Amino acid sequence: MEKILSVSGLQKSYVTKGNTYPVLKGVSMEMNRGEFVAVMGPSGSGKTTLLNIVSGFLSADSGNVKVGSVDMLHTDKEKQAEIRSSILGFIFQDFMLIDGLTVQENIFLPQIIAKKPVADMEGKTRGLLCAFGIEDISGKYPGELSGGQKQRVAIARALSNEPLLILADEPTGNLDSKSSNAVIEAFLFAKEQLGATVLMVTHDAIAASHADRVIALSDGMVVRELVRQKEQRQFMNDILEFLKIVEVGQ
Ligand SMILES: Nc1ncnc2c1ncn2[C@@H]1O[C@H](COP(=O)(O)OP(=O)(O)OP(=O)(O)O)[C@@H](O)[C@H]1O
Prior knowledge:
Blueprint (H helix, E strand, L loop, with lengths): L2 E14 L2 E14 L3 E5 L6 H8 L7 E6 L2 E2 L5 H11 E4 L11 H11 L4 H14 L15 H13 L5 E5 L7 H18 L3 E4 L3 H4 L4 E6 L2 E7 L4 H17 L2
Parallel strand pairs: 3-8, 3-9, 6-7, 7-8
Antiparallel strand pairs: 1-2, 1-4, 4-5, 9-10
Family: Belongs to the ABC transporter superfamily.
Organism: Parablautia intestinalis
Pfam family, one: ABC_tran
């Protein structure tokens, strides 16, 4: 199994007004190629901090993060942006589509940044538009799309660069249940048909129940790892049970 993400002994504190607040207290986790993993945990448990360190946006106090063969924590800052654009794909809660660009142009963007040849770019984008069933909106602007459509465009954009790893922060956070389902379907399609590896931070137990594994954080530590069951309902029950325990324990 090819290892795509390897996080070990990650520690991070924030210093505010002279006080030090430990947020990650030795987090370790791994992901193999093609896995869809959800990170869950109560508000403030360190989920977004973990994602920001994995992507190199934030430094850590100690520990290691490897994406493929790249050491994310010890790469010089100048190179980091370039590396990020070539091996990572991002999906945000509020989509972060560029309003002045069409759907197709938004999907071009990571490929332009990664200096992909134009012919490859057009072919790749066409393939993704078809795969996600959004060919008919390729000339529209983000302001003309529904939330679910925007998020599907954001997923296609994140995949356009063929990243090793996709990082998604609350991708269903602002969506109604129909649009959330469309997003999860798009993730499953990306995983099953395109071999994508996806790490998703979420509060949404339904979204998480479609992942292969749930890494459960509480108070800056991995307190549990839930592995997908044959029965999705059982997996969902395990997730809800975990959430109940950590939220009561706060
Ligand atoms: N830049 C910062 N400076 C100081 N404290 C911070 C900073 N960013 C986050 N924190 C604090 O660190 C803790 C963890 O934050 P983080 O955003 O990682 O949690 P989270 O699990 O993603 O929460 P949520 O589910 O609410 O998004 C919180 O208590 C937060 O207030």
